[in-house]
Amino acid sequence: MRTKIVISLFIFFVSASFLVINSPKKETDMVSTQTQYSRPDSFYIGAIDNGWAYSDYDRLKELKLNIWHKYPRNDSGWRPLVVQDYLFDDSSVYYSNVQSKISEVKNNDFDIVMDRPKMKYLSYGRCSDYKAADALQPDDLYWFYRYNEHNSLVSSDSIDNSIYGNGIKVRKSTVGINDTGYVFTGLISNREQIKNSENRLLRPTDRYWHVIPRIRINPEYANNPNLDTTRICRIEVTDFYGRIVDSVTIKGKNFINRLTDNYDGNYFEHYNFWSDTTNPFIFYDSLFRVECSDILNPHDSTYGNVSNQCKVDYRIYWYGECDMWVDRIRVCNQVAFDLFDETPNNIQHISYMNWLRWETSLGMTNNAGWRFACDEPEFCKMPVLKYMNEKIMAQSGGKLGMTPLVNFDNIRSHIPDYYLSNHFTPARLKKYLVDIGGFREYYFDIYPITYGSFLPKQINGTHFEKIDISNGVLGQSTENIEDYEGVINLIYDKPYFGWGEAPFSMDLRRGMELSKLSGIPIYPVLQAFLYHTPGNPPSGVREPTNEEIKAMANISLAYGSKGIFYFAYQGFGGMSPDTLFCRGLVNQGTPPPKRLYNAYGQAKWDTICSINSKIQKWSKSLLDFDPQYTGSYIYNTNTGVNEQSQLINITYIKGIKTYKPAIDNSSTDTTVSGLTSDAQSSTYIQA
Predict the structure, then answer these.
(1) Closest Cα partner for 78 from 45, 124, 112?
(2) In whole angstroms, what separates CA 301 from the centre of its chain?
């Protein structure tokens, strides 16, 4: 039986999208396919790094902000706000000072996005499990963590139903059936270990990749002294150019457990090379370690290169002397390895557990902490963030946790030609972030206004003929208004996923759909800054106009956001072609003055205050909207997806008319004197 409800219409007059309350489906359908909405206690309005270098809470309150954030500066924590706060300090050195700052922030009615140096360092941990099997299920979540080439003469896929395998799919090589050779080659996601810029942020002792194959063999070849020198396989690592940078041969005796002095036939990871002194890279805790920044990517080739030029590989050569089952090869850096290694003798693991305990305790001060944030992680960081999230939640009784600030390109950048891929759908994101990661919100950034993009013909009566870096004008006016409208429509009015997708409405729609599937709230971080990186050519982002900021804020609400953040509060660097500089809600200075006017002479500060004041008044109602019963629709039909039809068929709204002045003061629509209605094909709602 259908349930009829009174429809509440909540329209934001921006672009062509708005939010409505949907007519629900059958109650049985709702229960079986949807997740209960987890309503947040507060509607957060924030600005990234608003605790930048000084404390002026009255100014933040003027902006109607209610959450505080400060980036840690390299290894120096929250300095200069906290005098003694360094990454590797014991808690006794900094704890009370940081706790006092947290109490001060909370006493001024701000919650805190916890961004701390120790947590940031742990979030540099990377770990990937590359599966050996070839024929995975079509909907396999980790299809990109496997290999392109599997030699059927050397091995075949096998379901290991032994007491050791419990039905997992592996790659098996059998004596007398298979030939010697490479079991698999051509790792699909092979750029995850070449990001040298981040590797260099680690201590030298942490700049290693552990290579850990998971293999089992017939126990006789390990336990029988007459057979224990049998060669099982050779593990090889190749660099960016396909050159072998290290290799090791595993023999039967290397499967012996040092504690029990035998091998039980189970899958093995901790290989014993106690008598091998020829290879300094061999370790008991993994097969061997590779120094990442110098060996895998010697010429510092760009991490973002997606043209299949990278030849990094972790491959296995089978000697044909003993049956072998291969599950996967794990590659993790030293930070991830120590974090996961809970053996009692790992001193670094104990240290990291102390870090988590200290920082969680700080976040619980006066219940000030919201979440510990990790800025724009790649996919290979998810196992570490999941681990940290579980520990923090357990220690805080569920009050705190980790939340990744998702940049959609970053999180899918490990996939070759990722910008052509439609793999990371809302359903997949739910699996990765919510079901597996355990994260309780979708916190993501969207910066759609690019460097050099068109400006309107005039702003406040001024025509900007060209880019003017010294005055922060990183775009130029166009004589043809359709050029500007074309850019804006691509940014705001394209809701579909896939190649050619518009970054703004697409990201918001992805968040809305994820919220419907999971019940978690979404928090977009919106572009409110300009950023200039010198170069030939220069790069960065153009400062949005006031109208563009209003549109971004309102459209975000139309897609069901339960809070909004602006990037960024800070301003730094002198504005010149040879300088790296940024302007957010404040200008450069100590203390930084308000950015009263943007690069185009518009009153930026007052506009942000006005936007946030309205949102603050709406906040309770915005939180009450259940994403299961709300939808956002673009009425414009030229978007690639006919959401106008969906709006009319699913909700109680059966049509919208927009009007413009009639020619010769006559009207073609008698309902509104002096105006003429637009054709439905060109009808849209505009700020």
Answers:
(1) 112
(2) 23
User: Is the pLDDT score of 631 beyond 70?
Assistant: yes
pLDDT score at 282: 45
DSSP characters for 444-511? EEE---BTT-EE-S-BTTB---S-BGGGTB-SEE-SSHHHHHHHHHHHHS----STT--HHHHHHHHH
**C-alpha distances out from residue 430 to 124, 374, 394, 512, Å:** 23, 18, 22, 12
Buried b (16+ CB within 10 A) or exposed e, 587-599: bbeeebebbeebb
pLDDT tens digits, 634-683: 877 666 667 888 888 888 888 888 887 776 554 455 566 778 887 776 67
Residues 553 and 544: beta-carbon distance below 8 Å? no
Q: Count how many Cα atoms sit within 13 Å of the Cα of residue 365 in the half-sphere of its side chain.
A: 22
User: 537: cis peptide before it, omega within 30°?
Assistant: yes
Q: How far apart are the first and last CA of the chain?
A: 40
Instruction: Please give the Cα distance from 281 to 236 (Å, whole number).
Output: 13
Residues 47 and 634: their CA atoms lie apart, in Å, by 28
What tokens were used for 388? 């940290």
> With the CA atoms of 652, 655, 659 and 665 taken in that order, what torsion angle do they form, in degrees rounded to the nearest 10?
-120
pLDDT digits 0-9 by tens, 167-204: 999 999 999 999 999 999 999 999 999 888 888 889 98
- Residue 586 and residue 593: Cα distance in Å, rounded? 6
Beta strands in 140-271 (DSSP E): 147-150, 156-160, 168-173, 181-187, 208-217, 231-238, 244-251
User: How far apart (Å, rounded) are the C-alpha atoms in residues 174 and 154?
Assistant: 8
**Residue with the larger pLDDT of the pair 208 and 105:** 105
Instruction: For strands 442-446 and 402-406, give the pairing.
Output: parallel
Which of 625, 618, 620 has the alpha carbon at shortest distance from 19?
625
Q: Does pTM surpass 0.85? A: yes
Beta bridge partners of 522: 442
Which contacts qualify for 654-660: CB closer than 8 Å, 24 or more apart?
655/680, 656/683, 656/685, 657/683, 658/683, 658/684, 658/685
> Could you write out the DSSP letters of every residue in 580-642?
-EEESSB-SSSSPPB--B-TTS-BHHHHHHHHHHHHHHHHHHHHH--GGGEEEEE--STTSS-
Residues 318 and 235: beta-carbon distance below 8 Å: no
Nearest to 543 by CA among 522, 519, 556, 527: 527
In whole angstroms, give the CA distance from residue 71 to residue 263: 49
Distant-in-sequence, close-in-space partners of 200: CB < 8 Å, separation ≥ 6 = 207, 293
**How far does CA 39 lie from the centroid of its chain?**
22
CA distance 240 to 305: 11
Residue 623, pLDDT > 50, answer yes
CA distance 156 to 403: 40
